[in-house]
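Structure ticket #2291
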Amino acid sequence: MNKQLFLKLLSLGLLAMILALALSNIEWKVNERSVTRDGAVRAIADQYAREQQLVGPLMLVKCSETVTNIETDIKGVKHKNQSTQDCTFTVRPSTLQASGDLNVNERYRGIYKAHVYLANLQLRASFSADKFQLKPNQVINQAYLVLGVSDPRGLKAIQVRDNSNRTLPALPGVPDTYFNQGFHVEIAPNALKQDLALEATIELAGSTRLDLVPIGENNEFKLKSTWRHPSFSGNFLPEKRDVSQQGFHALWRINDFATGGERMLDVKSRTMAEGQAPWLSTTLGVALIDPVNAYTQTDRAVRYGFLFVLLTLGSFFLFEVLKSRTVHPLQYLLVGFAVVLFFLLLLALSEHLAFRLAYEIAAAACVLMIAAYGRTLLGSWKNSATLGIIYSLLYLGLYQLLASEDYALLLGSWLVFGILALTMYLTRRLDWGMTGKRLPENALDAQPNKHQP
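Resolution: structure written out below.
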């Protein structure tokens, strides 16, 4: 067995483990910075407004019912006793139409930013008079239009109008309802004797995500924004959507067949967390995602880091056996650390620059450093330039893997296949049994010196 080749491969394996440990530390640093960023985003949301969920409107009808009970005393005489019981009930709108425009802005805390929005919402709800029919022994005491909001700090302006276009005052809080937070509007009981149509204009601030609840029997929701990267969330995807560089438009149409109808009001078996509406599992909406998140992209790049380390060590080892030039393990280690340093530079630069620009700067710096250092190993600037071109192509290939998330596995597989095929071609005539062994002195003398005239 070729002892020198075995020792060389063993040393390269140990170096690969050292570099893998260094990469794991960088991956830990990426996660740490990401957690710090998430904390800053939450702090901004705590001061501005959190993710918003809007539920309603619903009509809360507080009524009382007179009940007559016949009781028999100990002498067998029957007496009539009347008592009043509560018969409060909730009515969902027959039709609910909502349209909204999300104006997205950025808020910064240090170098970290959060996406916040101000939603201008128009709600139109119609209630059928048949839903307010009472029994002869029932009477309506009060009626309220109620809307639940997960974070009422985001309520900037509210205007509610009735059938006659009269403005109705909105009051904070949602008394005696399913909601923890929101606002209500008092409705005159006489107004419930006929079909009722109400319009509400709401300015609602929030961050990251906006959810609506299809609480009506028939719902039609429209949302639009100049934000170019929406992620439609909840239980229902838009029936129609248009996403372009100018923003997005989305349309939902949902009815009782999809939501379960009156079962949406059955919250007895559900738990309700503080600040949340009870229909959290039946929502639709949009989340404002950032597709070029620096930490997500850097984390994906680090996942390919060990492949780059192996390619770097393998390429210099291939050069060593093909050109019969000795490369010291320390030189392998320095070149390997140059590759690892690329990912640290990428993380640091991407916090301040666009990810693509940060990638280009970090890749150019590392390629130049490896090519310049390789000058002493390769013996000429021409060979060093070739090495720089090869590494530039590798970094270009890595960027394509990051940019083509859906095809990353396919591109990565073909990249590894191509590198393996090239290695097999270059070493097809190599005598591995003689690799690393010293040639006899007469063999060295017999080799022509191409530098001699």
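Closing remark: The first helix runs from residue 3 to 47.
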